[in-house]
Amino acid sequence: MRVPPGVSPGDFSDAIKQFQQAIGKEWVFTSDEDVDLYRDSYSPFWHEQEEPIPSAAVAPDGVEQVQAVVKIANHYKIPLWTISTGKNLGYGGSAPLLGGSVVLDLKRMNRVLEVNDKNHYALVEPGVSYFDLYRYIQDKNLKVWIDPPDPGWGSPVGNALERGGGYTPMRDHFDCHCGMEVVLANGDVVRTGMGALPNAKTWQQYKYGFGPYVDGIFSQSNFGVVTKMGFWLFPQPEAYLSGNVMVSRHDDLYALVEVFANLLNSGTVQATTTVVSPLAFGRDPELATLRASGSTKDLEDYVARKNVAYWSVSLPFYGSAKVVAAQWEYAREKFSVIPGVKFQDGASYRFPLDADQLAKITNPVPFGVPSLQTFSIGGSHSQGHMWFSPIIPMTGEAVLEAQQVFDQVFKDLSGAPGVSASFPVWSFFARAFVIIYFFPIEHDVEKNRRNREIFKRLVKTSAERGWGEYRTHTAFMGNISDAYSFNDHALRRLHETMKDALDPNGILAAGKCGIWPKAMRKAKA
Amino acid sequence: MKNARVGLLLALSLMITAPAFAAPDQDQIEKGHKVYDKWCFPCHGTGLGKPGTDSLAARGQKPAVLEERTDLTVPAIKTFVRHGVLFMPMFRKTEVSDADLDAIAAYLTRNNKP
Predict the structure, then answer these.
(1) Chain A interface disruption, residue of B92, B97, B98, most A CBs within 10 A
(2) Most buried by CB count within 10 Å: which residue of A45, A78, A251, A347?
(3) Which residues of A touch B94 (CB under 8 A)?
(4) CA atoms within 13 A on the CB side of A47
C-alpha cells in the first residue's frame, strides 16, 4: 500500500480503518488496481516518476461522512485531494497535485436537491454531472436551461469552483452560483449567503446574505470542501439567432473587436463567441503558401479575390424572437462603421428543439444540451490534451500581440512555426478575452517534457506582457502562482494566512493554485 | 514507452477478435443497456458529435458504433473501461461499479455468436 508523505505506515493503516468505519469498507479504495483509476488520464507526466499518484481514495455519501473523513484526516495529518466528478481532463483530471494524497471522491454525492423553473435556480451536490442535471430537467419537463461547459460529464459544482465557462448568457459559472455549503478542515459545516439563516427561503435567490461575502475563497482554493452549491439557471428562451460579421482587411480587427466589446459590455451580446481569422484554417494550397510566406497585403488580396473574410465573429443572441432580431439589426448598424463589412445570417432556432432538430446539431452545448463532442478536438488518434489559457485584453491590439508573442515562443523552443492564429479568442467572461491553447498529451516522455517547457515559457512570457492564466493544469499551478507576484507575492501571503487559519494541519488539497500548507511551504518554494 | 501503448492496443485487438461465448441473462442485458446509455452513449453512440464512434470509424473499426458490434469480448470491454485507450479516460468505481461494468459487458456482447 502506498503511504502519504509525512505519514507513518502505522498511522495510515489506522486512518484507513477509521475511514472504513466512517463511510463503509467498500468506499475506501487502497489496492493499486482501484487507486490507479484516480490517475490523470491526460497526465503530462505519463511514464515519468513525477506523476503524482494517490495513496488511496475515499468516497463519502453525504455531508456527515465528509465531516468524519476530514476529522480523521486532521487527526493523522493526512493530505486529502477533493474531486467532484473527477473529469477535469486537461487541467488534472481526478489526480492530486501532491503524490500520495488521499483522493476525497465526492462522485457518490450525486443528488439534484432542487430545480425551480419559476425563479430559475438549482441546488446540487458535487457528484451531479451536467448530464445528470440535464436529464433531471428533461424528465420533469422544466422550462430552464443549464449552461454546460464543453465536456458534459463535468460537475456544475466542480466547474464553477474552477471558474469554468460555458456558452449561454449564464456562461460565467462561478458568477452564476448562488449559495454554498462547505465543510471546513476542522469538520465544521458552513452555509454561505442566505444559507446562514436557518430555514432560509432565498438561499438560491440572493447571493450575499449578511456580512463579508466569502464564497470566492472557496474557488480555486484549498480552504474547504464544498458539499452543496446553488446555481442560477437560464429561463428556456423562445429563440436563438446568430449572425456572422466579416471584415476584409488585417487592420479591421481593431474596429471589429472595439464594436464587439461595446455590444458585449452593453448587454446586446450576452453569450460566448470567438473572434477568428478564417484564413488560419482554409485548406486551399494557395492559402497555405500565403500563410507560410505571404505578406499581409498578399492575404488581403486573397480575401478580395476569393470573397472570404480576413476576420470574423459570429454573434449569438438568446431571447424572444422579436428581441434577438432587433439585437442583430442593432449589431449590424454598429459594425457598419467598418468599411466593406459584410453580414451573413446564421442559425436560427425556436425552443424547445425537437429530437430531429437536435440530431442535426453536431455541438448542442450552446443550446444548453451537454455533450462530449469536444473530445474530437485532438483527432482520432489523440491521447489527451491540456490547456494553456491566458486572459488578454479585449482589444485587437492584444489579440495580434498575443499571437506574435506566443508563436515566437513555439519557434524558439521547438523550431516549428507557431499556430496561434488558428486558436480563436473566446468571450467566456465579460470584458476580457481568453485564449485556449491546445497542447497534446502523448505517451511519449520526450514530447511531454518539451511541451511542459514550452508551457512554462508561455506562462513566463505572458506574465512579462501583463497577461495571466485563468486556470491551469495541476502541473503548472506553482508556475502560475509565481507569476501573480505583485508586491513580492502579497496575494499568496494572504492566501497562506487564510490557509493557516482555516486548515492549520494542511490536510486539504496541498499545493492547489500554489497554496501549500505551512509544514510544506519551504520545501515547495 | 510508446511500445507499451502499442502493445496494449495489440492485446486489446486480439481480445476483440477472439470469440466470446458468454450468454448473459436478459435482466443483466437490460441493466447494461441503461448503464451504457448513461456512461458510454455520449461518446460511442450514433449520430453527430460522438468522438468515440468517430475515432473508431477513422481507425477502420467496423461497425464503429459499439452497440452494433458482435465481436467484443468481456475482458476487452473491461480493459478499455478501467485503463482507457487513446483519449478515452479510465473510469473509477464510483462512476462505473464492477457490477455496472459486468452489465455493460453483458449488453455489448449480447449479439455475439457462440
Answers:
(1) B92
(2) A78
(3) 27, 59, 105, 107-108, 127
(4) 14
Query: How many angstroms separate the CA of residue B114 from the nearest CA in chain A?
Result: 31
pTM above 0.80, yes or no: yes
Q: What is the pLDDT of residue A293?
A: 87
Task: List Cα–Cα distances, A289 to A293, A295, A404, in angstroms.
Answer: 6, 11, 19
pLDDT, tens digit, 9 for 90 and up, residues A242-275: 999 999 999 999 999 999 999 999 999 999 999 9
Q: Which residues of A touch B86 (CB under 8 A)?
A: 380-383
Choice among A39, A171, A471, A492 that is catalytic: A471
Q: Which of A38, A91, A121, A310 is catalytic?
A: A91
A308 three-state secondary structure: coil
Please give the biggest Cα pair distance in chain B.
42
A91 is catalytic: yes
Substitution target from B95, B97, B101 for chain A, most A beta carbons within 10 A: B95
CATH architecture of A239-351: 3-Layer(aba) Sandwich (3.40)
Tell me whether residue A355 is exposed, middle or buried, using C-beta atoms within 10 angstroms of its C-beta: 0 to 12, 13 to 18, 19 or more: exposed
| ipTM, two decimals | 0.94
Count Cβ neighbours within 10 Å for each residue of B7-23 and write b for 16 or more, e otherwise. ebeeebeebbeeebeee
The correct answer on CATH 3.30.470.20 for the domain covering A1-107+486-525 is no
